[in-house]
Amino acid sequence: MLTEFIQRQIKKARYKVLKDGSYFASIPGIKGVWANSKTKRACEKELGEVFEEWALLKVRNHERIPGLVINFDRREMLRHA
């Protein structure tokens, strides 16, 4: 579920070629998630990794992720612990 969500968000990424020829990418509506690399492919890969780490921190901290609904039912989590 989270992997598919990340892939959908990466498809929304906006890329810019900077003056030095490197690529800069960000995802609209997701503050603090960006990447910069020498090639577009490397930039996309880095953006995916940054977004995944950002999303996992949000999940760990029970924080809202724009565009994703997660039900944190602690009773259910305790049953599986």
Query: Which CATH architecture?
Result: 2-Layer Sandwich
Number of helices: 3
Specify Rg, calculated over alpha carbons. Answer: 15 Å
What number of domains? 1
Which stretches are poorly predicted, pLDDT < 50 over at least 5 residues? none
Mean pLDDT: 86
Number of strands: 3
Q: Which structural class best describes the helix and strand composition? A: alpha+beta
Strand content: 5-15%
Secondary-structure element order, as H and E?
A: HEEEHH
Spatial sequence of strands, sheet with the most strands:
1-2-3
What CATH calls the topology is: Double Stranded RNA Binding Domain
Q: Please report the distance between the alpha carbons of the first and last residues.
A: 21 Å
Major β-sheet profile:
3 strands, antiparallel
CATH class label: Alpha Beta
Which overall shape is indicated by the principal axes computed on the Cα atoms?
A: elongated
Note the quaternary state here: single chain
Secondary structure: helix percent: 40-55%
Brief summary:
The protein is an alpha+beta fold.
Question: What are the defining features of this structure?
Answer:
three-stranded antiparallel β-sheet; 81 residues; alpha+beta; Double Stranded RNA Binding Domain; 3 helices
